[in-house]
């Protein structure tokens, strides 16, 4: 059984296809060909993944595609944010060249957000743009990174500074693959889920509050998992459909990311997972919003309680310097006319965007939410 969520855009609309989370549901990855056959794609496919994910699911995907008549080659990139670089993109280009990928050919991303972002960027720039498909295998990628067409790589001085908008032709989500996801990665994905509850979907927030645990895939029942994935994808689709290129509304999806990205950058993309940075960023942003009288203390405490329930950090590591964070914020993609734009909650399910935040206030809050070693 599938849930189909359309991402409606002026051009390049596509579907998010979510399979049943039931453990005995029909294996969805082996049905990939059924989902892509209506897209009328060329027969050459370059599958990009990492060694760990490919070991679990690569053979199933490749066999399915080859049985449907596709000519499939694979390229594996080592796991981790530190490999999200232009060097890795060059390796994908090399694989595309060696296998004579044409404009009708397709790149398929099988993996988490790092693989999805890089594959999408390579597809956006190979022969000035070829089709690509997202098969996310992490919770974070399922609910966020694989949807919306943001693709790219990191610069040593900033996250995702190099990239392009390039929408996938399809996003295929099988929640059952999360059983092989490391616990820490699952928790990191929950940060984005909590974000949707805060910025857009009060009902989702309430579902999360009612859950006994959010910190482990094995402790979440199938119904809640399906709700988490479906409502999060619907929230992302709603926002992207209204603002594809982040000219206004879509910026709210960056709640928690402003400070979170700075923390990731300053720790070399090797110590802090993206979702962990977002969790810290949401705590800090919530605290700033309270001090600006934009959000209630009670609502901020509810948010922070969910973050803790998901097993996510609520404090910035002691070694991350506040002044370095403030300086790094100036390179953030959301800076406009030299001013850092923050997304702040007003109530659960509603946020606003402002650039009226002083460095002194940021400094004050960072001191409060940084771990005292």
Automatic annotation (TrEMBL):
| Residues at which Zn(2+) binds | 192, 257, 274
User: Which leading EC class covers this enzyme?
Assistant: lyase
All residue ranges annotated as the 3-dehydroquinate synthase C-terminal domain in the record: 189-335
An example molecular function term from Gene Ontology annotations: metal ion binding
Q: What is its main location?
A: cytoplasm
**Cofactor(s) required, per the database record:** Co(2+); Zn(2+); NAD(+)
Tell me yes or no: is NAD among this UniProt entry's keywords. Answer: yes
- The Enzyme Commission number assigned here is 4.2.3.4
UniProt keywords (A-Z) are: Amino-acid biosynthesis, Aromatic amino acid biosynthesis, Cobalt, Cytoplasm, Lyase, Metal-binding, NAD, Nucleotide-binding, Zinc
Compartments where located: Cytoplasm
3-dehydroquinate synthase N-terminal domain mapped to chain residues: 76-187
The superkingdom of the source organism is Bacteria
The pathway that the record names for this protein is: Metabolic intermediate biosynthesis; chorismate biosynthesis; chorismate from D-erythrose 4-phosphate and phosphoenolpyruvate: step 2/7
Q: Where along the chain is NAD(+) bound? A: 79-84, 113-117, 137-138, 150, 159
Question: Which Pfam families would you find in this protein's record?
Answer: DHQ_synthase, DHQS_C
Tell me the function of this protein.
Answer: Catalyzes the conversion of 3-deoxy-D-arabino-heptulosonate 7-phosphate (DAHP) to dehydroquinate (DHQ).
Q: What is this protein called?
A: 3-dehydroquinate synthase
The opening ranks of the lineage are:
Bacteria, Bacillati, Cyanobacteriota, Cyanophyceae, Oscillatoriophycideae
């Amino acid at each position: 059984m599938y849930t189909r969520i359309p991402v409606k855009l002026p051009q390049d609309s596509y579907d998010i296809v979510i399979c049943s989370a039931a453990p005995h549901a029909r294996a969805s990855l082996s049905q990939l060909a059924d989902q892509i056959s209506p897209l009328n794609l060329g027969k050459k496919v370059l599958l990009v993944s990492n060694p760990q994910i490919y070991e679990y699911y690569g053979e199933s995907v490749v066999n399915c595609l080859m049985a449907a008549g596709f000519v499939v080659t694979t390229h594996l990139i080592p796991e981790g944010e530190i490999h999200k670089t232009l060097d890795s993109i060059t390796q994908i280009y090399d694989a595309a060249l060696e296998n004579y990928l044409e404009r009708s050919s397709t790149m398929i991303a099988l993996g988490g957000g790092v693989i999805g972002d890089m594959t999408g960027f390579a597809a956006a720039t190979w022969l000035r743009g070829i089709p690509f498909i997202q098969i996310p295998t992490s919770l974070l990628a399922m609910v966020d990174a694989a949807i919306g067409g943001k693709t790219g790589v990191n610069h040593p001085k900033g996250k995702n500074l190099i990239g392009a908008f390039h929408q996938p032709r399809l996003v295929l989500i099988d929640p059952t693959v999360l059983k092989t996801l490391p616990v820490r990665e699952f928790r990191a994905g929950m940060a984005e889920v909590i974000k949707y509850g805060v910025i857009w979907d009060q009902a989702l927030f309430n579902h999360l509050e009612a859950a006994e645990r959010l910190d482990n895939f094995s402790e979440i029942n199938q119904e809640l998992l399906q709700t988490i994935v479906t409502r999060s994808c619907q929230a992302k689709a709603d926002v992207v459909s209204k603002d594809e290129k982040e000219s206004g509304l879509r910026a709210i999806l960056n709640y928690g990311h402003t400070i979170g990205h700075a923390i990731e950058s300053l720790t070399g993309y090797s110590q802090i997972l993206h979702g962990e940075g977002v969790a810290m960023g949401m705590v800090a942003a919530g605290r700033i919003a309270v001090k600006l009288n934009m959000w209630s203390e009670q609502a901020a405490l509810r948010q922070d309680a969910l973050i803790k329930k998901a097993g996510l950090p609520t404090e910035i590591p002691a070694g991350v310097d506040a002044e370095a964070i403030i300086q790094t914020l100036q390179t953030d993609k959301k800076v406009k006319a030299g001013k850092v734009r923050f997304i702040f909650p007003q109530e659960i399910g509603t946020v606003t965007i402002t650039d009226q935040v002083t460095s002194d206030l940021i400094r004050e809050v960072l001191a409060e939410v940084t771990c005292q070693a």
